[in-house]
Amino acid sequence: MKAHIALLAGDGIGPEVTAEAVRCLEVIARQHGHDFQFESALVGAIAIDTTGAPLPDPTLDLVKRSDAILFGAIGTPKYADPTLKVRPEQGLLKLRQELGLYANLRPVTCFDALVDVSPLKAELLDGVDILVIRELTGGIYFGEKTRTETTATDLCSYSVTEVARIVRLGATLARARRGKLTSVDKANVLETSRLWRSVTQQIMKDEFPDVALEHMYIDAAAMHLLRRPSDFDVVITENMFGDILTDEASMLPGSLGLCPSASLGSGTLGLYEPIHGSAPDIAGRGIANPYATILSAAMLLRHSLGLEAEARQVEAAVNRAIADGVRTADLKPSAAAASTREAGDAVVARL
Ligand code: NAD
């Protein structure tokens, strides 16, 4: 197969970890006779420094003519002040909006060889296999904002269409997994949550009677995620709840450096990125964990290119590298930890 992949490495450790994911994709292409063309473009702080904009027009043009986007991370301490008018994260928000990437898929699985890294007890981690789907282009992050000297407001709004497409995606994916959908809201307090819950109930009753549905308040979900994580299968939730819940869930495997994500819209174009940020504290030292980005590349193969066998091959190679003890510093804080490149080499060797 021929595929044109936009490479937006971004800032900090972004270029370091995406380089390893590209190497893995190149091996897959060679082995299976695919033709993957990579084209790089600027995004984030480096784009502001170079062009003045966090998402320059040439980058937007490139992603629109690509089959998939491999994204690193954005942000540098220089732009940390949240009152700045132009900030790196605006590049990512605009990208999601322009491409209509409304669903963020974040799988959370625990690696047997890494139970010692998780802050949770090993017996709680047995069988954890969660897919969180976060609504990505609506809710309070995108609503109107106001500010006076003494008050501030952020509008949270959702439409039936925005909720319905997340419910259908979640239920379809749950059907192919363990057949359970947990919808997380705050319907005892928020009107948007009451709409979310009624749309979910109706669609599940009419279209997915074979998928078990449970509703859970966000506060209870935050607790149950730690108390009984293996009970969850597919979780759907709105933008801000999903943002917080997925960072909490990332602690189950034990490091942000193990968690991939995919942002999808109505077509096959998707954006694939690790859930971590640009990690300025370790950038440039060659010690970042590339596994989350390599696992994001596996999601790219699966969701944008339809290459399920190749996706599983990459996931299996990462699993084997971890099982064989190849650990970066976040997983093994000692002088014997693998570098970013060595972890990438380990996956390439096992492909
Ligand atoms: P972060 O995820 O960058 O780092 C949090 C901690 O985890 C740091 O100690 C870091 O060293 C460590 N870490 C993260 N990824 C790692 C990896 N692959 N290997 C080893 N250790 C890793 O979050 P932060 O420090 O809150 O934010 C830093 C910058 O990243 C900020 O500018 C923030 O806005 C940005 N950010 C970007 C994204 C994105 O690009 N999607 C997401 C979150 C944060």
Task: Walk me through what this model shows.
The chain is α/β, with parallel strands linked by helices and 351 residues long. It has 2 domains: 1-104 and 257-351, Isopropylmalate Dehydrogenase (3-Layer(aba) Sandwich), CATH 3.40.718; 118-252, 3-Layer(aba) Sandwich (Isopropylmalate Dehydrogenase), CATH 3.40.718. It has 12 helices and 12 strands. Strands 2-1-3-12-11-4-5-10-8-9 form a 10-stranded mixed β-sheet, sandwiched between helices. Helix 1 crosses helix 10 (291-303). Residues 13, 17, 73-75, 89, 92, 256-257, 273, 276-282, 288-289, 292, 330 line the site of nicotinamide-adenine-dinucleotide. Nicotinamide-adenine-dinucleotide binds next to helix 4.
Q: What overall geometry do the principal axes of the alpha carbons give?
A: globular
Q: What profile does the largest beta sheet have?
A: 10 strands, mixed
List ligands, each type once: nicotinamide-adenine-dinucleotide
In the CATH hierarchy, the third-tier topology of the largest domain is known as Isopropylmalate Dehydrogenase
What number of domains? 2
Beta content comes to 15-25%
- For the secondary structure, the number of strands is 12
CATH architecture of the largest domain: 3-Layer(aba) Sandwich
Number of DSSP helical runs: 12
For the record, what is the CATH homologous superfamily label of the largest domain? Isopropylmalate Dehydrogenase
Q: Helicity level, as a percent range?
A: 40-55%
**Overall mean pLDDT:** 96
